Amino acid sequence: MQIREARTLNYIWRKSTRVPQSLACKERINMSTAGKVIKCKAAVLWELKKPLSIEEVEVAPPKAYEVRIKTVATGICQSDDHAINEDLLTPLPVILGHEAAGIVESVGEGVTAVKPGDKVIPVGLPQCGKCAVCKHPEANYCSMTKYQATLQDGTTRFTCRGKPIHHFINTSTFSEYTVVDEISVVKIDAAAPLEKVCLIGCGFSTGYGSAVNVAKVTPGSTCAVFGLGGVGLSAIIGCKAAGAARIIGVDINKDKFAKAKDLGAIECICPQDFKKPIHEVLKEMTGGGVDFSFEAVGQIDSVLEALSCCHEAFGMSVIIGVPPSSQNLSVNPILLLSGRTWKGTFFGGFKSKDSVSKLVADFLAKKFPLDPLITHVLPFEKINEGFELLRSGKSIRTVLTF
Ligand code: PAD
Ligand code: ZN
To answer: Got the DSSP string for 197-252?
Structure first.
């Protein structure tokens, strides 16, 4: 079984190292635009719960300590969909997108971290390196993480039809060009295939890090992963890498099971197949509860199911999914008094600047695969089709290329 899985991963890896010629061409950029406003295409969300509109936008040059990036590839994450559906509050109009890789086109005054021509990944979670969080050995939620829908100076670099357009979680990658703060961009290896490593900008790192960093999954342990999308499957890759002996996938869409098993799940279950709550099923399956559980769905009910399914005396549950901002959870403290640990995480606990280039290096060193997570590659103009694939459960990650 293990040999078969290793072969599968090896095969997936070998496929993943080929960079299509067409993409290599797209990675060349014109740097004569430095200091000028760039007109380019972007997907603008003008109204909640409506399709994104492909528009010509104006992207102003970067100010001091800012970087303008040519986006080469960007994934679609459920967090973008949460913003469209108002589950994640963000001011409109806005350019969404936060899981991307690109090339630096120009830099503002004082920027030292990157230079034009560098391959980079913009990061939703900055790392200023100076605040108490950045200095803390374990924490990653940098105090400069404002999610204020502008750059750090409080203004926006995007204009469309004469109106300023908001930024989204420090990145706004559904645009051919974007401007980010220097503290929100990481230089990566020049050999990295951008249409794959874009996933390190969010979904992969979030799931994988939740297992290896946040839960610190132990060898021989039992894990349950709720939600087998891009984030949950990445948590499975992390659990397996950490040496978990038994990984159980939980999803209401059985079409997700085959890939979860390819990546390391020993079994997968669907809550709708049982009359009793799924945490009771999991407790029975594991003789009292799992060692580690992960919620990668983004619903209040499954957050509670994930907490309840871990062992009452020593289990740990990690919240990864982002439930609707309007909903609160009511929990009986006895669930924790007995000894459970409950955690939550953004970006898998990784300090972004310290970790993203290392994760890219690990991918290039074949320590984990990304290909199984990429089910669709579409031209940027088909972005709304990409969202439909996510909503209908037909895709894991759609990567859009410009
Ligand atoms: P996805 O839509 O690809 O995957 C979600 C999966 O959950 C799908 O396979 C669904 O079928 C499944 N699902 C739905 N309802 C249930 C249920 N009741 N029980 C079990 N499974 C169910 O999304 P994703 O993988 O892109 O994102 C998952 C969540 O993680 C989402 O809430 C997103 O906003 C969040 C996220 N958090 C961070 C972070 O830093 N914490 C980063 C990225 C994404
Ligand atoms: Zn995301």
So the answer is: HGGGGTHHHHHHHIIIIII-PPTT-EEEEE--SHHHHHHHHHHHHTT-SEEEEE-S
- Indicate if ligand 1 lies below 6 Å from the C-beta of 148: no
Same domain, 25 and 157: yes
Same domain, 59 and 185: yes
State which of 77, 140, 355, 396 you would mutate to test the pocket of ligand 1, scoring each by most atoms of that ligand within 8 A of its C-beta. 77
Same domain, 180 and 228: no
In this structure, the residue with its CA closest to atom 7 of ligand 1 is 227
Closest atom of ligand 1 relative to the 78 alpha carbon: 26
81 shares a domain with 224: no
For residue range 337-390, list pLDDT tens digits in order.
Answer: 999 999 999 999 999 999 999 999 999 999 999 999 999 999 999 999 999 999
Q: Is 223 in the pocket of ligand 1 (CB under 6 A)?
A: no
321 C-alpha to ligand 1 centroid (Å): 6
Q: The pTM is what?
A: 0.93
Pocket perturbation via mutation, ligand 1, pick of 85, 98, 210, 231 by most ligand atoms within 8 A of CB: 231
CATH number at residue 317: 3.40.50.720
Are the beta carbons of 100 and 171 closer than 8 angstroms?
yes
Q: Is residue 359 part of a domain?
A: no
- 284 contact partners, CB below 8 Å, separation of at least 6: none
